[in-house]
Amino acid sequence: MSGKYRAALGSASRQQVLRVLRAAPEPLDASAVAQELGLHVTTARFHLDQLAAAGLVQRRIGTENRRGRPRVLFVTAGPVRDEDAREQLIEVLAAALAGRKDADARASRAGRRWAETFVSPDPEDPVPGLIEVFERLGFDPETDTENDTIRLQACPFRGAAREHPEVVCAVHRGLIEQLLDNTEPQARLIPFVEAELCVVTLDRHPASPAIT
């Protein structure tokens, strides 16, 4: 479960609020939810806002004619979007693997197997092929030729990577290692040099053939 869902559902009261909305035949406002659960309306509104921020419920504006501001109604969200489902699955798998002593090694091997699903880069000039893979995966790579680095500006797995870097970042490291296998450049992945930035450093004249 992704961080935003876990945070939203980490409260028994919010789980009750969600059950009330699911059972309701029509959208409810905070007052109705509060009455149903015996909560203060401010507390009910807080829980509803948390669920809405996580995408678990949606706000609707009441259409009835009334003085003052229109009522804000809440209804459970539709089916989980594909990208949210993938994010949840990635985090569940990362969490399951993170508890193992050999998590890093297993994750790295998984990354190497993943690399085999892509076209191998040109061994004479592998960096463009590596960039193409990052682009296909949505990392928004930017090459800094002066410093021989690749800036990964939009990791599509950042939520899981922040919670389980020993797994997710190791998968990415294995991916890079396999893509550059038997080529001259060595690479080192440096995760989260900034909040939204990871960097791959390239050594085109390595002293040894091993990738760190």
UniProtKB/TrEMBL annotation:
Residues making up the signal peptide according to the UniProt record: none
Annotated CDD domains: HTH_ARSR
Coiled coil: none
InterPro entries linked: ArsR-like_HTH (IPR011991), WH-like_DNA-bd_sf (IPR036388), WH_DNA-bd_sf (IPR036390)
Domain of life: Bacteria
Name this protein carries in UniProt: Transcriptional regulator, ArsR family
Organism in which the protein naturally occurs: Herbiconiux ginsengi
